[in-house]
Write the structure tokens for this entry.
Amino acid sequence: MAKITKDEIKHLAELANLTLSDEEVDSLGGDLNDIVAYIEQLSELNTEGVEPTYMTVDLEDVWRDDEVIDYGLTRENLLALAPDQADDQIKVPKVL
Amino acid sequence: MSEVTKIVDSVRSGKSSAVAEVKAALERAESHTDHHVFISLTEKRALERAKDIDEQVAAGRVVGALAGVPFVVKDNFLAFDGATTAAAKMLEGFETPMQATAVRKLEEQGAICIGKTNLDAFAHGGSTENSYFGPTLNACDKERVAGGSSGGSAVAVALGIVPFALGTDTGGSIRQPASFNGVVGIKPTYGTVSRFGVVAMASSTDVIGCFTKEVEDIELVLSIMAGRDERDGTTLPNPTLQGVALQKQRVGVIKECMGEGVDSEVRELIEQYIEQLKQAGHEVEEISLPMYQYALAIYYIVIPAETCSNLARYDGIRYGYRAGKSLSDVYGKSRDGGFMPENKRRIMIGNYVLSSGFFDAYYMQAEKARTLLINEYNAAFKDFDVLVSPVAPTPAFKLGENTSDPLKMYMADVMTVPPSLAGLPALSVPAGKTKAGLPVGVQLIGKCQDDAKLFSLAKETEK
């Protein structure tokens, strides 16, 4: 596998919404190349016809009634979790 | 009588009181500040609750199975009174009006949470050095790491501050610090305890468990926390965690964990433990699990993939740290400033293995390889009841020893990640100490929902 380039690291950071400094791009780039070189070893395994495992216990499609459950939480409680609020809403920076 | 039941007994009988127990625990916490176990103490609420329990006892009312027992939780559990930081700047000062189900259930039985313990930020790490608030020091040697990511909780129990502590384990985060500090730690079967109110890391392996000094207390605490929770769809109905009569067990020693790369003193201590099992009449044989050599690679694909998805919610908008001016600025700068380097590393790897063009080669291949690992376990459990390995290849390492090399740090997880990937219960119990006085743990691994069998086996060999 080809080495992950600096531009690819920057692109990846953009996808992950991380504004990295130049030093971070360099150090993360180095780490990522080491880690990818390590995980690369899985390519030697023959997994033809093997089903992937996403869930280890036998639980699928757990249903419950579509009812509002009162957990004793108020609108104010939850709004207070946001870094900025105004008029009973979460305040965000100007988009346009 | 175990440590926990001793306290409950004396609180119920009036020999002691909940207030006295809580005050003593808080004093012990204060006397060990140099180990940096805590991110915060929840003193006010703890004392109020203790007073309330004492009044109930005085009034002759029935009090819970954990009445007056002080405990601590890793700071990724939501608990009343104070912040839940996950040891990250992203959640510094983050106070919620909610409580994790596990904490609520313990409190309903009269247990009293006295504080929130240190961890690697967002539980990413194996040393508690990745904490925004600085590292926790090992209980036996202050120049060494506590292990992680639940380092603070492990040290709290090892130093005797509280008789039990909660942690989370995604790939070894309870078992490895238990081993490094000489206490008992359980990663139960996946789905045993509700994860509602706990900061998510990797949802297909995250479990909640606990630390104690004795196995009996693990059984008690875990059975109270366990069970179906409507707020966590992955919880199992009716887990059985107590009281199995033990017959002769067929014990398999995992060959891949006893060879090269394992510290010679660790190997000797595990061999001594195995000898004890033989003396107790159990049948011990070696078993080879060739997929073990791939487990760490599987783990460091699957877990970052899930982690980067779970961490996408921290965008500086709905909760947590916010930096920057314009909207795109806020996303990028809040995440860059709020996360620790290891968080960013895992977010980047996760995005890499999930990105188009690499998804099949990495993520899908890893999930298929995971099936091969599980198949190997299933075959092994046809011949064996319990599998045994060290918890980690070495005792606690020195502070700073592995911080510059992420891969070297990941290697500390090499023996704990395989059971996590398969959802199996795994118990870390003290196997003794090295000549330098560093604790070493042995790992007992069982079939899914065979947690109780591990407890029974471990109790036989407890001193």
About this structure: Chain A touches chain B through 55 residues (CB under 8 Å).
